[in-house]
Amino acid sequence: MSKIEKLIAKFCPNGAEWKQLGEFCEIKTGKGITKIQGNINGLYPIISGGKQPMGYFDFYNRDANNVTISRVGANAGFVSFIKDKFYLNDKCFSVIPKDVLNKKYLFYYLKNYEDKIIDMQSEGGVPTINTQKVAGISIPIPPLPVQEEIVKILDKFTQLEAELEAELEAELEARTRQYEYYRNQLLAFEGKKVEWKTLGQVASSQLAYGSGASAVDYFDNIRYIRITDIKDDGNLIVDKKSPSEIEEKYILNDGDILIARSGATVGKTFHYKKTEEKAIYAGYLIRFVADKKQVLSKYVYHFTKSNLFTSFVENNKSTGSQPNINAKQYSSIKIPIPSFEEQERIVKILDQFDALVNDISVGLPAEIKARRAQYEYYRGKLLTFQPLVHS
What does the record list as GO biological process (predicted)? Predict the structure, then answer.
């Protein structure tokens, strides 16, 4: 029997008493302050409605080791534990318990309950959490020795989870650098005899601009892909839009490559696959269609992630507030064209690296996600108590 099981058997074998927060906690909103009133050299963080301090201030209005809940804004309902003295803004409130409750135990319980607190946000306008609703949250109150042991266990879990996550993220960064190194080595062909052609020469048609349609709410499984939809890793963002009008000439086909031509995203690329939903591409994107007799489209896509391509973009984009590279310029970039056998070999190697580094369903990102889920599962188990049954 573990120590926590022994403590539960000793102090609360028949369950724990449940009370509402308002019965034994002071739930109090902070005092308004603007960012301008803050002091960058101040000693005390200003805790407001966000997940990070709004700034710093010369005075504090809350002691160290207290629980806060964001009250207003996009992060309303976010639960934090502040270890140092701090200034609490009016966009946040503190939850300070009486002696019957360990503050860190309260934090862990409310953090475990966070999704339900977020669901308390008011509808319409700026999301807001009503303190009276929070006051009505019921919480189990086992004896203090049990609370303290739960806190010890969860503190250790939190430390281990943070250390493991840091290790995994460091590993992910190392794998990413390794991937970039091999990609650049494989696609440079230094000291090797290989034919070089322009992108325009290995295209089955001229590189073409996309649709001028406006974006509307998503409908009929037809996605409108815009420059802002393409992430750094070449995947698309989750939020979807559809085009206001559908023209056949802008519908993407399997293997098409989209290249961003304007703005901060200039040079970003996306490889469309037939397994994805039907899609139309927007006007600030340029479509490349590979000539299948000369080149594999996936090989070209990997080339667009190489140093050769990114250097071309940096050296050829127009200066000013809106950098731009047109279709004619992209058509002129030179790309090494080895045999199909060599292209397939390179694609196979780089696809494996890509899956390991970028695919959320495999590799290290999935491991990080699994560890977080495991931690949250055990936290929930430790904080579950049956209502007290009096014998």
Answer: DNA restriction-modification system
